[in-house]
Design brief:
Layout (H helix, E strand, L loop, with lengths): L1 E6 L1 E2 L10 E8 L2 E7 L5 H5 L10 E3 L5 H4 L2 H10 L9 E5 L3 H9 L11 E5 L6 E3 L2 E7 L7 E7 L2 E5 L8 H6 L4 E5 L16 H11 L5 E4 L1 E2 L4 H9 L6 E2 L5 E3 L1
Length: 254
């Protein structure tokens, strides 16, 4: 798998990065398969540096906060109205309960406008895997104020684990165990004044990876623009030497 950090800014687009979006690609049956994990605000523009959005095979949304799902609205505009770029059939979109209504309300001005003519929405269930081409995707409930999923993406014998937004919870053992690459939320510094039950810190992300066992590579992401990436890295390196901080445009080969 090839994983590209299209956007990795936490909670809102930063000056150097859109909000969360990770392009995952693999070769299968003579072509490149393309999925994105999250499509946060600002990400659809940057995504076009890497692929045409009409070439997506699926979108997987971890939860329904705007910084993870809102650019489904401009993607709909591209699918419905682009004069040259067309795709055959509706684009599969997987997400939490209520995703179709959430995006319909975000798109609408006035009455709700359902977007089912170009999106095929499916509500994910925890621990129920589903295939997209060569990928097997397994959602796992994580610890966030709204329904939120981390996802395991398996392909060709390797595994990517993406936490989405979460604080520490037992489910991270299941999510991360044996993963070749973990993209871990590290939005909050590990200090007083930051509430629990919302986001990991660099230290708690590293602790979760150690607890899960078998993780080969840990990358911290979703760091808010007003926080210091260096602090998240320093916290994590006390537990996981050599930890990486995700940057927009980073490419990981899994």
């Amino acid at each position: 798998m090839k994983v590209t950090a299209v956007g990795c800014s936490g909670s809102y687009p930063g000056p150097e990065s859109p909000a969360s979006c990770y392009l995952v690609q693999a070769e299968y049956e003579g072509r490149t398969w393309n999925i994105v994990l999250d499509l946060g605000n600002g990400s659809i523009g940057t995504l076009q540096r890497y692929i045409e959005p009409t070439a997506l095979d699926a979108v997987v949304i971890s939860h329904l906060h705007p910084d993870h799902c809102l650019d489904l609205c401009p993607l709909y505009v591209i699918l419905a109205h682009h004069p040259r770029l067309r795709r055959q059939g509706r684009l599969p979109v997987f997400g939490p309960a209520g995703i179709a209504e959430r995006i319909a309300r975000a798109y609408a001005v006035g009455p709700v406008e359902w977007l089912d003519d170009w999106f095929a929405f499916t509500e994910m269930a925890p621990r129920v895997p589903f295939p997209v081409g060569p990928f097997t995707i397994t959602p796992v409930h994580v610890n966030h104020p709204v329904e939120a999923f981390g996802v395991r993406v398996e392909c060709g014998g390797v595994t990517l684990a993406y936490t989405g937004d979460t604080d520490a919870c037992p489910a991270l053992d299941e999510l991360m165990h044996g993963a070749d690459l973990v993209l871990a939320d590290a939005a909050f510094p590990d200090q007083s004044g930051f509430p629990r039950g919302i986001h990991l810190s660099g230290r708690r992300a590293a602790q979760a990876a150690v607890s899960a066992g078998g993780v080969r590579r840990l990358v911290l992401t979703h760091i808010l623009a007003w926080n210091q990436a260096g602090q998240a890295r320093a916290e994590a390196e006390e537990i996981w030497p050599g930890v990486q901080v995700c940057r927009p445009g980073d490419i990981f080969t899994v």
